[in-house]
Amino acid sequence: MHAPPSNPRGVLSDGAGQFRISVKSPDVRNFIAGDCIASVRWTADDDLMIVKRLKIGYVCTVAFTTPQLVDVGLYIARNFQVSDLGGSVIVPSVPNTGELDSRAGPSAIAQNNGRIASLTPVSAGVRTLSAHPFMSVTGFPTATAGVVSDQQVEWTFGDTASAYPIVLRCNEGIVVNLLTAMGAAGRMAFYFEIEWDEISGNRN
Amino acid sequence: MASRTPYSKIAPAGGAYRISLKSGATTVLNAGDCVWSCRWTSTTLRAIIQKLRVNWVVTTAFDAAQLLDYGLYFARAFTATDSAGTASTLTGDNCKLDTNFPTTAFADIEIATAAAVTAGTRTLDSQPLVTRNGWATTTAGTVAADPNVEYQFGTLDATNPITLRADEGLALNVLTTMGASGVVRVYVEMEWTEVPVNLA
In this predicted complex, what is the ipTM? Predict the structure, then answer.
């Protein structure tokens, strides 16, 4: 029996600031598979975005005509050349927005580079998604409104001593896409929460 | 390994990866059928499996309510890779938790289409490492018991991860035969690191 190899070079929590935001879409309908529900793009040349916690969930606010699977996948997006458009802007660069400690200073996520769907999906800019999600959330809204996603928890990355966070570098990001098309009539409110550290890129 | 991993005090010294796969609309799978599997072939690296999540959703109800359970087995002595499932794309930056990491060395990670994965040549343990269970009613929408659970291996100081050496892997098998008409989508997520053999 042996423990995983140690790597004492690192730190468990570090950085210029720690941030968290929670955003909610309006009651959307008729989204199709592949539509973008939320996205963030990291644009700081010299710093890293260390994603520690994620939560994605939904509530069926208006029942579907036929009960159906509703699932979403979270992807890492690389090689952003054009930011996503549309939806509602998440604005962490407004002073103190999302700061877990107001001494940290504004997030380095550039304004307009975080979005959540409005009544229409976020429109994909130019970026390359990973072939597969790194995380999925599922549920099966019935013909009665009020069904929520099965996973109502927060997924953690790199918060234990031997686990890694998600590391986003310049022009990388996270994209939340719908995996199964929504049938007629049904409406969904989506929630997206993300907590991250921002650290100097010269640490790696 | 060129990877530098400074964000954790005792994290394995190698690249970190994660993937989430969704099956096709599986129907009438028999006990012992494979719905997901992976095979590790590198002789210079080892795969340290740290997190695993298995969930499912019954998208079309079974004619009769029934037990629905899956077992995750350690597979050893691979000589032929599994086939016939939907193979994941493991090239380039896919699965990396940090783009600076090398491309994953996993040879195969696949999940069932509507039919089972065809087992290659490998030896499963007699008992699963993990069992996920639930009760599928005659109403669509039932899911695994506690769909939030994520198994963690070796993430606490006093625990060990699952270590895959060359020609070892994991296989998720059906434990109870699926009755007629029921359709199930299975979701499998895995997070791992890849470390030099002299460190694991």
Answer: 0.86
